[in-house]
Amino acid sequence: MKILGAAVAIPTSVDDSQSYSLAYAVGAARPALEQAGCLPSELDLIVSLSTSPNRIVHDPAIAGPRLAHPVQRDLGARHATVFDLLDADWTIALDFAQSHCRWLGFRRGLPVACPSPVARAVQIAAWRPSHWTCSGSEWPAARWRFDCAQRPNRESCVSFADTMRSQRRSCLRAGRAHPAEWWRFWGIESRYMIDQDAGETELTLAEDAAREALGLAEVDAGDLDLVLFNMTSPFVMHADGRRRFAPRLSRMLRDRLGAKRALDAGVDMACASFVLQLQLAANLIKDGRVKRALVCSSELMSDVFDYTSKSSTNFGDGAAAAVLVAEPPDSQGANWLKAVYHSDATHYDLVTMRWRDASGLGEHADSRPGVYFTLKPDAQEAIARFMPVAIPGVVSSLLHQSGIGTADIDAFVFHQPSALLVRAWAQRLALARHQYVIRVADCACLVSAAVPFALHESIRQGIIQPGSLVVIAGAGAGRGFGAQLWPWGDTAIDRVGTGSVNAEVRHGR
Fold first, then answer.
1. Domain coordinates of the chain in residue numbers?
2. pLDDT one-digit tens code per residue, 173-187
3. Residue 181: strand, helix, or coil
């Protein structure tokens, strides 16, 4: 890799409480790109590192999205793939970006180190790998097993048929305002919610799923080389209800599991984060630098619901984990072949997290100020325009580049925002019903955990078998999309809801 340009941006006053990250990042990016002789429109990849959950745009009420997509928009880097890394340092960002460019054939990347509230400085390096073309003989022969587990809390399932019963009284009151037709329209019958009174958090759910996946893979946590993690909420929830935004859960999960030798990092591409984690783990396995990787998504969306908004109550809580293990070339292992990604910063602010007082959410709502999931007033109309075509677009591009058609694919695993959208994607791609699953009726949209839940269900139903050709496609809040092609191999999963390693389904073992 050759670094062609670098720059920093430091505010004139460290006491400037109205400073925001985006201005610094863009201010440093432009001179770095000029030094590199690279136009923003020529960028293939933007990777940001960010700690602070807010100050991303010049609106102190907004707590998200993070930095990468606003940088893409303001630079005009419309062709770049973008994502955020959390709890990672500069060298890790360079390393991940280099590996990503190598295996996707990218030429130019732009890692961005975003300022935190304490140290407001930005580092930028515009670079291109010195060796980015790969012949077939240069590809490591390693394959991997894929073992996955999911851990929703079945005991705290919320039933919309019974006025949204839950632990939260504000949910009960607001739920009565939403007619049953609303849930039937979106194909949602029930969902899961974390029971904070019982000490459940996104970390405990993630740990349960991770330990189960490790057991299925017969991998000791101490032998892991890589732990990648994602959660959408800008805050980490303590068991006692206290919140914090740093450190993120990747480091905590690694420590709880005892994976002391593993590199850990948080990955954020909204609902497409799990798909991106698979990509990053696959890259490093193909580089021959990682043998055992854990990828995990855990979502606590019930803590950021605005129960007065019907749109924000289409989500549920849950966690999923997968273990990828490099194996000898003659084994029956899943092997990632090709991927296509598309980022569109035009829509980055359609779906946001906003700071506001919760007092308007009902008589029994939490009185503390908090962060709440919010859609812009015109978000539903905008999403209705681009979302039905975005996923079919990246999938069609992937199939075209791979020289195959939809009939050659045994299974499509889609993000699961709603049954309506999944059916629309399948119809646009002219898929047969046996080629995909819909997994929202019992759990609603699980954000970044939705794809692994659908993957889990596809394996459980036998739609995915050893030797199957599989497309995995994710969509992230209207601003990031990706599709991957995998020839499937040896897989072990737990049976849904059992929580028992002994009650597993094994294919090809």
1. 2-136, 143-327, 338-350+378-507
2. 334 456 777 777 788
3. helix
